[in-house]
Design brief:
Distance between the termini: 41 Å
Strand content: 25-35%
Number of helices: 8
CATH class: Alpha Beta
CATH superfamily: P-loop containing nucleotide triphosphate hydrolases
Mean pLDDT: 83
Helix content: 25-40%
Order of helices and strands: EEEHEEHEHHHEHEHEEH
Largest sheet: 6 strands, mixed
Low-confidence stretches: 1-10, 236-248
Number of strands: 10
Number of domains: 1
Oligomer: single chain
CATH architecture: 3-Layer(aba) Sandwich
Length: 251
């Protein structure tokens, strides 16, 4: 494959075209995704909603190049990468996509600063550059006083904010989040979600966020509802002003 073209502000960050996913169960095939079509543009914050078992995690796994569709196209930068080889998928995940999960999955033997530095060091960034950027991201997420603390010394909300900083370490164009506040109490979830929206808005990322929390979903630019393997797309027209307000209030 040729080197991927440089992304432009008007380009679609991610596009699904006719995406399907089936799993074999004995002699039968279970269809999880059925002809999924959608796209996400820069600066869009999109909610992915649906009942448990609807296939939200499957869709995120495919969007994050951790799984392949049974058929259809997954387009990044105008190129179909749904079935490319593992080496290129690894590079794209490292350089293009950031992940935030329900459980933070921080490394317990490393400080908050070191956890955020690691993706950059793996990508080949110099240690002093990685340390500077990690400190910058953690400061943006109001954790400058916790840089040297290990995960066990942080609250659940602080741990999740470290996980957000780690996801942004390599300056991805697309952020994927799977129930990022699902393991937190309502007050902490609100704080973490506000932090997430604010830093997405500031960085100009595109984001696809799976959530069961319809109040949080209603705050995003639009919602993708997954049901019976298909998507319904609905816009929340007032969201740009809300997200801008969150950004101003959080920082």
């Amino acid at each position: 494959m040729n080197k991927m073209k440089q992304i432009q502000p008007t380009d679609q960050v991610l596009e699904f075209v006719g995406g399907t996913k089936s799993y074999r169960q004995g002699r039968n095939a279970r269809e999880v995704l059925k002809g999924v079509d959608f796209n996400i543009r820069p600066k869009e914050i999109v909610a992915l909603v649906g009942q448990s078992g609807a296939g939200k995690s499957t869709l995120l796994q495919i969007a994050g190049l951790l799984d392949k569709p049974t058929s259809g196209k997954i387009i990044i930068n105008g190129e179909n990468i749904g079935h490319v080889g593992d080496d290129l998928r690894t590079v794209l995940r490292r350089d293009y996509i950031g992940f935030v999960y329900q459980y933070h999955n921080l490394l317990g033997d490393f400080s908050a600063l070191e956890n955020v530095m690691l993706p950059m060091l793996i990508a080949g960034k110099a240690k002093h550059e990685a340390e500077e950027k990690a400190a910058f991201l953690l400061e943006k997420l109001r954790l400058s006083h916790r840089l040297k603390h290990r995960p066990a010394e942080l609250s659940g909300g602080e741990q999740q904010r470290v996980a957000i900083a780690r996801a942004l370490a390599n300056s991805p164009r697309l952020l994927l989040a799977d129930e990022p506040t699902g393991n937190l109490d309502p007050s902490t979830a609100e704080d973490v979600f506000s932090a997430l929206l604010a830093i997405i808005q500031e960085t100009g990322l595109a984001a696809l966020i799976a959530t069961h929390n319809m109040e949080l979903a209603a705050r995003m630019n639009r919602q993708l509802k997954l049901a019976n393997g298909k998507l319904e797309d609905s816009f929340a027209g007032h969201k740009e002003s809300f997200i801008s307000r969150v950004s101003k209030n959080f920082y």
